[in-house]
User: Fold these one by one.
Assistant:
Number 1:
Amino acid sequence: MLMLACWGGSAQKSVIKISYHRFSHDQPVENQDAIVAFADATRTIVTTAGNLAGTSPKPSEQFHISGDKIIHAALLAEGQYIFTVDSASIPAQKFELKPESKKILGYNCRKAVIIVNSNTVEIWFTTDTGIRAAPTSLGITLGTVLEMVRNGNFAIRAQSVEKIRSFPASVLTAFAPARPLDMLTYRDRLWKSRFTTIPIFKNETINFTDAPAPHDSVFRYAKGTVIARKVKFPDFPAGSRVFLDVSSRSDGDAYDRTGSVILMSDATSGTFMDGIKNGAQALPLYENGNGKTYRGVARSAGYEPSLELMRFFTPFGAGKYNTIKIKGRTWQDSAYYRQDITDIADALRDREVWIAANISNYDKGGHKLSANITIHPEEGTAKRPGFILPLFNTNSVLEVAGQDYASMFDTDKGLEVPFELEQDVSDAVLRYITTGHGGWENGDEFVKKPNHIFLDGQKVHSFIPWRDDCGGYRNLNPASGNFPNGLSSSDYSRSNWCPGMTAIPVDIPLGNLKKGRHTIRVAIPQGKPEGTSFSSWNVSGVLLCK
């Protein structure tokens, strides 16, 4: 570790120490780390009470201000020290002085106003001390800032001003690498240090090939259309928010495709991983009397289906086909998807699991995909489900490996899944994802169809999954087909999805459930085949219970 003394110099005799507290709507902010500023005639150092005591959570930051220069120094969560030098922000501050005045802690104060990012900030400052000081760099050229009010409802107010003999030794030294970072890199490092990032996939190819080969710890299956790796997650605290980020771009495939990210336990058998590794024939059959068989879609004795973390849809060729020119269109290079998956965080916490991603396609170039999961600490204790029970997933992730399309909704029975509870549960919720597909213009992809959910024979929920905002994703779809009426294929409304977006889960309350056997049923009036065209529905359901 390199320790760089900042500013240097001997102890000063005319140093002031100001303690500031934050207020929201005139009420003190709870559990706050008080701001503390030290200043003399030549410099100001802004830190926190927690920093001084060594108790601040990481990352922690303090500012050293002298003249028009600000040094930002931060101790990151991983124990690294970084700093940057800002010489531009202080000269850019332009204030409007107001006639109002008042006393704060016995000091005569004047008012100044500045607009920052559309926020109106009132600064109350005094020149009585002869020293420049503030809780931030804002207003420090005016004198000693004793109160700062943003938009009339959030305030930082001085609670005490005292004279001390010298700067504390702990704030005179900034811990930093030998060279400062540029401001953008500093802010990026500081921001990313506030949460934990678990890399899943990085620029992995998902394509159609006869010889899929593993890459590092990533395995490729189903002729390259499925990638999977085993991931170990930390024991993160309750209350944390968990997000899944995915990006995809075409590397040859021009079409909109169904993609998904799924989770399987690390069990040696009895999960969807059996089918990923050995082909769809290794998965148990589901039959509903329509004469067809479907593999791996429903929970059964000794078998657990995949837990769908995210379902996304690739756009028409974003990336590879950005060379297509249309006046007034600037194509996005890739599609970016971000989803809050906090409700199934317990399926990740302190576990090693298989994470797989698929994009069903038949192109040798296919797509490039990256994914990571971020864990964000948050104050308070979130309500956590007592257990997470994957019930069904009819998405044909293994289409290329022999898994049939989910056309079981052509009968009244639809999809019927029994499950067993070992104890009474309260406030059960079905996390339900649904999208309709196929049949061209008269098929269920483009026709509104209700989804009916039954629990133990009683209907508990019905709704029509539909998206009519697909035209808003046009800049993601350079290769989208164009029609004589002036619309493109990507413009058309669809059954709960658009090219370039995710399908958002729906939470369906199921109430309190007793110990024992229950049955969940999904019924959809699926359209009939037209020639070689047919409709299907990809639905997944996870039971969340206390």
Note: The chain has a mean pLDDT of 93.
Number 2:
Amino acid sequence: MPKPKTFYICNECRAESSQWFGKCPNCGTYNSLEEQISIQSSVDILSRGGVSGWHSTQINGKSPTKPAKPRAALTFDQISDRQVTRWESGYGELDRVLGGGVVPGSMVLIGGDPGIGKSTLLLQVSNLLAQRYRILYVSGEESGQQVKLRASRLGVSKPCSIEEDAQDNTTEDTPESKPTEETTAENQQQPEASEGIGADLYILPETDLEEILREIDSLKPNVAVIDSIQTVFFPALTSAPGSVAQVRECTAALMKVAKHEDITMLIVGHVTKEGAIAGPKVLEHLVDTVLYFEGDRFASHRLLRTVKNRFGATHEIGIFEMVQHGLREVPNPSELFLGNRDDPAPGTAIVVACEGTRPIVVELQALVSPTSYPSPRRAGTGIDYNRLVQILAVLEKRVGIPMSKLDSYVASAGGLNVEEPAVDLGIAIAIVASFRDRIVDPGTVLIGEVGLGGQVRAVSQMELRLKEAAKLGFKRAIVPKGQKFPDLNIEILPVSKVIDAIIAAIPHQTLEDSDFEPDEDE
């Protein structure tokens, strides 16, 4: 029997090492090496044909006498033109980030911090899909009673359990309760609507991959939810669940079943301290779509962001709100990230950011005050820190504001991350308004990128941004000069320099508006 070989694989860069180190020699990550055991086979793989057989016919200039023909490859003409109809998940925000709906046979990976609401979202989506399709919810972290308790709190009525369903089948064996192969094939093509809430939602508390695959083969669901992939293990492997080998092999096996049986897989993935999905990077390469569930534990809203999507645009976002009975979608997120426009404060500016193809109107707030330390402090919440430092340098050099003697704090309302260059002009105007203690017109939006020379550069998707601003009732838009603008019910003020945008956004302080009162003797 061949002697087993022990080696170690890094969870981050997948580099192999013959011995364990506290720090990966390749990428420098600490405590990332996982032990793996493999058995070397004495049989030469190349001797089984394939590459070896092809190589033997090519030596000494000889070529095969058989005519060239494909064994399994197909041309585009031979591939069927079957139109794939997307399924509506019941949540428009989830359908948006997926590219228009759930694609049958696809594999979707959802990652996020603990307690952010991944399992809650998938259980609610499973409940809505179970009204039309057959759903299998595999819980590797909770028992059936715990899932049922959480489902009752979310309003999911009576989800079926595999164990209870098996007892019902033993007592009642009718043709209606045991579908034949013909009816199963028809249900795969066009599932019929079920009566009642959660009528076709089955719960399976299991972590053994072989048992999960047997249940999928027996139940033949349209959608299978795996919560989570780090808890599933393949008994043939000696490594612990969640290791590189286990996550890779389990995901590959589920992917094969999803593609061959046309079953949609929704998989939950744990994340590391840095926010990346735990396990090998090949996990994100195998799946079709990667979604990140983001949010602040002290805020009620949650952001579902697309990182990878083979069936739609990337960097799309869907916005949900955590309420008493689970997650509720927010169809108009601009109202969530806008402050009180009826009572504006100095140092605020309105910008239009784009997340994928969705424009979002966000309020930026700035606070500038004299520093009491040798070096001023800069802090940004929801914006890129390097962009903030760059804009402060431009304001000091090109506009003449002594930012090197002032503390600067900039934040986005609601904590939304707006890191694209199109919000540069709004950041600059908010800082200048706070420095001069002036109020920017609440009916004005600012769109543009600030260059190092003080220029206002053009940005993309200008038409979408202006349409969103006009829909929310804004009257003016300060934008870069030189772009084509649609004919909308909004006044366009094109500018080429930051100083021009400051003059247009912040009205000149008159004598009546100032706090200076002249002496009567003068």
Note: Residues 271 and 277 are 4 Å apart (CA to CA).
Number 3:
Amino acid sequence: MSIILEQLTKRYDGHPVVYNVSLEIADGEFFVLLGSSGSGKSTVLNMIAGLAEVDRGHILLHGRDVTYLPPQERRVGFVFQNYALFQHMSVADNIEFGMRIRKTPAAERRRRRDELLELVGLAGLGSRMPHQISGGQQQRVALARALAHQPEVLLLDEPLGALDAKIRVELRRNLRLIQKELGITTILVTHDQEEAFELADRLGVMSFGRLLEVGQPEELYRHPQTEFVAAFLGTANLLVGQGSADGVKVGPVYFPLRQEVKPVGDAQPQRVQVLFRPEDVALASSPEALDCPQLGRGEVEESAFGGSFERLRLRLPPIPGVRPISPPVSFGSGSVLVEASRSQDQVSRLPLRPGDSVWVGVRRIHALAHPGLSFLIVTDGSPLSNGALMLGGQIARLAHARITLLGYGQKPETMGRHLREAREQLGSGLAALETRATPDLLAEAVAKEVERRPYDLVVLGFQRQESVELAEQILQSGEHHLLLVSQPQPTPTRALICVTSGEPGKDDVLFAGRLVRHVGAEATLLSVLPQEEDGQPLARSRAERFLASGVRTLELLGVPAHTTIRTGPVRDEITSEVTTGGYDLLVMGAPLPQRDGRVPLNGIVGQILNVINRPVLIVRSGV
């Protein structure tokens, strides 16, 4: 193998930007790291090049451990997005620069320079200055300079990102030809999926510092294993259905399936995510004209000309028992959106315009095991944490969620005994149960664990007043939500979801609904208007519309829901509603993180935590 990465981890200001990345890249392979901005892909490249220190892990290049070697001893070539050419040097001098530093003889430098100028299509332009050539030509100079000292590995960090579309296509072809001709092992970092598909022998998809999947481009596009990769690579239609031994049901529609879908834990019935791409969608003027399973009759909402093909967005009525994932539907809507694409030949046979009705079928699907929810329940064996253990375990059982039980703050023998007893208390019927023990204090223990594996929900015992700062620290350590349990209690039957109109409020409703529906509880959506807004019709009208959309969303999830609007001090009104309404679960949205990542709870949420003795679910917004 040319490149081996072993559990690479990199942190900035204590936060992991790359976590536990392991990867092997073969000799002569063109490998592409694909991910959105901030996914950690460029940091991986910088660590390989020696431009960023490795906090943990090892880097092997052609069998040499280069983890702690300086960049000049790693035998790598690096091409940056912004070219990084020396503006006061000619094209020829730029290419020779690295060889001159390495004291390569002048005759050898000139020979190698001329070879590279011809290789990258710039023969005869060596005397020009960077400002005298185009952006595409400058990038070719940067590539030639990176290859000049004959590196064993070539690293490309978004090298075509600053160029226009036509030049990018041309340079992609040239880059692939040059890489094949030289046989040099190459890693390219990009967020451009078309670029990744065209260049990669294999590609890896990164998100939030983790390498999620690795494979050949077509395989990852057709048969991804995770929801993120399915939705990130191209356009995806994703629905939640039910899996069986030989097929998948999407509502009343049955799709035979050749592949085996591996279940997550022992959850029954097995939920699956059904993926079909726009090109897998069939459209016809009648159900008889479809030669594939039918989703139903839809309406054309949008159409767009794409040159050799047409893109359509179709809106179907709700499909009983089906929850759409992608494309996402608007808040409060029960319809299903489907993305479709057609050749111009198909367009001519069945012209469609926005507003037209058409029958929709699906030729081919791919099923992914539904990941379900993942809970982290922390315990130190105290009565306080025992209440959180039992409530979290019961909710997890009803939600078919996976549990990691994290013991902290006790001696190994004591903690081992407690964890064994906790397993017995939780009993059977869980999708999966893992136990872990740590000598660390609570906040540090949670931070390390959510770095190891992301969770949807952290559950812990909560003692009022002195624990608000601790809750802030735990929210800051990851993207999870937080359930605080102050005393033992049975499974909730009535949930009060406190919301404000806006995007964060939608996240509160969606996650709370996802959790509450599993435990069979009913919900009330509460919005509190400050006294000064009580007489403003627009403020009340806006709140009423938002709450009505929230009710529709919850009902689509199978949660009976009601609404109420109160006027007055927010803390007092929420406290009064909890007390008089007999609620046994309070849901509140977390404030948006500050610049340093801190989630401040010293406002309304903290005030409520100090006076409420019921479980409180704090929901983080994805905004």
Note: DSSP finds 17 helices and 31 strands in the chain.
